[in-house]
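Problem 12. The chain below contains 372 residues. Write out its predicted structure in token notation.
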Amino acid sequence: MLLEACSLPHDPRKIAARAAQIRDTDSLFRLAEEHGVIAHLARALGESANSPVLPTLIEELRARHRGQLLFTLAMTAELFRILALFKSEGIQTVVVKGPVLSLRAYGDPAARQYVDLDLLLRHSDIQRATEIVVAAGYESKVPIDAIRAGKVPGEYLFRRPGTKVIFELHTERTFRYFPRPLPLEKFLAGQTALSLDGHPVPALSAEDEFVLISIHGGKHFWERLMWISDIAAMVHNHPELDWTRIRHCAADVGAERMVRVALLLAARLLRTQIPPSMAAEIQNDLASTRLVSQIEAWLPYSGYAAPPLVQRALFRFRMRGSFLAGAGYLSRLSFSTTEEDWTAGGPGTQSRIVEILRRPLRLARKYRRSSQ
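Solution.
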């Protein structure tokens, strides 16, 4: 049902037929929420009112979607406030994913689910940006002393007490899942502005964001249908995408196979037409086909059946392309420390070498899975 709801173009007859077969609506709703596609499901069922079971489903879905919409409005208001504060201090930033991706891919800032707001800025601005966000009433997960010491977390996370609003600040140094360093200045130079509720919001170019979300999906093993749906919507709703530019951007950061896997997933699962200019290289990349088959096996569980340690490592290795590139990528991810590695030994100070050596051991414990 969820695959039909996210497929483009929609097939109302198939959606109605699937809906008529549903027996456990609670499981459907839980699964849709875990995959982040409640809005997709509500929209698809709303277009297929030919089954007697649909009115009840639609009523419940609309109630759940209203909750998501109210949360989105609160998040958007905070986004405008923080962007205004950054602008007043001369800090250049762009919004990635979240409401900007929702607006760009689906034409509606509330069409996709998200739980935080992601902003990209220069690493040289991160200390000042942290001070601004904290002064605006947020608590920083990363201690300011660690930021001053030059430690780089997975993301600079800020939570506003008493609310569910979360900001994540990213820099060219936190996007460690980019196979090669993120070309921040190039991204900033090519940025555009999108109108979000009548306010201009700085955003990446559509092509740069497409590469970014392809890498982001691969980072999370494509475990949520929402990320595949984003790819499908970008391709289906934006035939004007410059695929030559996307190819060049992917090559700049070593993400060629990541983009191919993203497109193949959208094609195989959601009926999205592969752009003709990308068809030949996708067809010739047999490793991409094998990776997509792996993803299809764990996708139904929405992260609750994540691949075990060895399979995770092989997936990272193969996503990069060649043997040497894969080995280098896997090695960097295995030894690039984050805030979890800083605190693993307690609050006391520890050497950089100890942190680096501790990381693969921590990852092994975290992702070790029994045969059950």
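Discussion. Residues 344-348 have pLDDT under 50 and may be disordered. Students who got a different answer should revisit the alignment rule from Section 12.3.
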